[in-house]
Design a protein that fits this description.
- The protein is mostly helical.
- Helix 2 runs antiparallel to helix 5.
- Helix content is about 85%, strand content about 0%.
- The longest helix is centred in the C-terminal third of the chain and has 35 residues, at about 160-195.
- The chain has 6 helices and no strands.
- It folds into 2 domains: about 1-35; about 35-195, Ferritin, core subunit, four-helix bundle (Ferritin), CATH 1.20.1260.10.
- The site of one fe (ii) ion (FE2) has 7 residues, from helix 3, helix 5 and helix 6.
- This is Ferritin-like metal-binding protein YciE.
- It holds the Pfam family DUF892.
- InterPro entries: DUF892_YciF-like, Ferritin-like, Ferritin-like_SF, YciF.
Length: about 200
């Protein structure tokens, strides 16, 4: 009996030692993962797009106010709501990979948004030319996002962040739909009407 108890004690010690080792290995793995160059780049790119999405919310507000047609105003309003969803999805992604959501200033999106502001200054209020130009400015924003989300979704898959990859792909799909919708609006009537203006 005594031997059996000793054996039991030994085996339970062995189990708890093994458990501790597993926890140690897991924390070592997590530490290694966080130090991996690709993981660092992934996090930095997430911070970049997190900054960009926040800047886009403000830009879409101004573009909506400046647009001539109700169709374009509505499209900008809808995408502004979607953009707010993209921000909360990014916050979920940061959480999933155990990182803090932080913004990293993104010169590229600042430049693209500045171009949109110049479009507003250089076109006449109430004109269709303004809408034709605003659509192109907005599509430049979408293409920046499409390139970013497409690349980050692929990296997430490669690194085994499956849930993060799903969220990134969901946003990617919405950016692509927005881009197509803007093309449709331009080609249905805005570009033709703009061409008639003098
Ligand atoms: Fe977005
Ligand atoms: Fe977008």
């Amino acid at each position: 009996m005594a031997t059996k108890t000793a054996e039991n004690n030994n085996s339970s010690t062995a189990v708890s030692e093994k458990k501790n080792m597993t926890i140690d290995n897991a924390s070592v793995d997590a530490k290694e993962m966080k130090n991996a160059p690709l993981h660092k780049f992934f996090v930095s790119a997430l911070k970049d797009i997190y900054y960009a999405e926040n800047a886009i919310v403000d830009a879409l507000e101004k573009m909506q106010e400046a647009a001539t047609t109700e169709e374009l105003k509505d499209a900008f309003e809808d995408h502004q709501l979607q953009t707010k969803k993209h921000i909360s999805r990014l916050e979920k992604i940061f959480k999933l990979i155990d990182e803090k959501p932080e913004k990293k200033e993104c010169e590229a999106i600042k430049g693209i948004i500045k171009e949109g502001e110049e479009v507003i200054k250089s076109t006449e209020e109430g004109s269709m030319t303004r809408d034709a130009a605003l659509i192109i400015a907005a599509q430049k924003v979408e293409h920046y996002e499409i390139a970013t989300y497409g690349g980050l979704a692929q990296l997430a898959i490669t690194m085994g962040h499956d849930k993060a990859a799903d969220l990134l792909e969901k946003t990617l799909q919405e950016e692509e739909e927005t881009d197509e919708n803007l093309t449709d609006i331009a080609e249905t009537f805005i570009n033709f009407d703009a061409e008639q203006e003098d």
